[in-house]
Structure formats: structure tokens, C-alpha cells
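Researcher: Here's a chain I'd like modeled. Treat it as a single chain, no partners, no ligands.
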Amino acid sequence: MEILFASSNKGKIGQFQFVVDKLGYPAKIVSVYEKFPEIKPPSEEHNSTDELVAKSAKEIFEKAKMPVVIEDSTIEIEAFGKGPGVRSEKYLKEKKLTGLLEEMKGRISRKAKMVSTIAHYNGSNMKILKNSVEGQIAEKISFREGEPLWVGPFGGGFNAVFVHRKKKKTIADMTAEECLAYGYAEPNFRSVLKHIFGY
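Model: Modeled as a single isolated chain. C-alpha cells:
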């Protein structure tokens, strides 16, 4: 079966498909924007990630007339008053990882949390799932060579500067298999697949 995914990010699509394949679900992850080129990404100006994914899922369903999954990953940094939060993607585009590290210089607390929020909407039932991982902002960018796009610094958001509290290394220093258990998005993809398939 096809699972319609509201993303044009090839890394994130590959990440979702990786979880599907590793868990043995009979599904192919398909970008809503490739299957329906006339559908444009919804506005990201919302007050919370729950609001963002729920409203976006409904908007896309109304146009595609198919169940849809949407995922949004954000970072909450204690020194920034738990920001940038829902504006994480905009912050990363403007500041990049180097800008974040520069802003963290001299900060007493480097505590942070990565949060994945997923919505699945089938026209009648809205399911919102969340998964978070605690850690801290690293002193420098660190990543493992040879891992898939979504793990490292070029498609993995804040992964290369976020040190996992339990693993004591950045998420970008993990293998894709480690991320299945210790990542923030991968366990959430596992949860939405269980919701969709019932097992």
C-alpha cells in the first residue's frame, strides 16, 4: 500500500521508508507533493506543532482525498526559553548550525530537547503522536561519515549538534539502526505505522 506523506524532503521520506522496511510493513512512502503536484505545502505559521500538523493534515486531505501523514521535528533549547520550537525550520534556514553554535557561546545551560510530532488523518479520525529526546547542544558539529542523508548534517536538521543524553554523542554520530531506538522521529514513525496497520 501507499502511505501519503506530506513532505518534499528526500531525506525525511527516506527516513520514513527506512523505518517501514526495517519493521517489515508492506508499504511505500509517497510524497504528497510528487503524487499531487497541484498541492502546495501549507503555511508553517502556527502557534504549536500540534496545531501545525493537525491543520496541515486536514488541508491536504481535503485536496488529496486520501489519508495523510505529516511529521514536524523541532528543537527546544533551554537557554532560548525553549525556542525556537515551532519555528525551528525557519531558524535553521536563517542561522544554520554554525549560527546556533555561535549563539550558544557563553550560555550557562546547553540543555535541549528534540521533539517529533506526527499527525495521521483519514478524513474522520485525527491521530497526533509525539516523541521527544533530551540532551544538550554540542560545542561543535560532529557527525559520522557514510550514514543516510537524514542522519547527518546535510539533511538531519539539528542532529549534528544535538548530543543525546543517554548515548553521549550527537544523533549524527549514530548509525541509522541506532536511530531506530534512540532517535526522535524514527520511534514516532514506528508509532504511526502501528496505528495505521494495527500491529
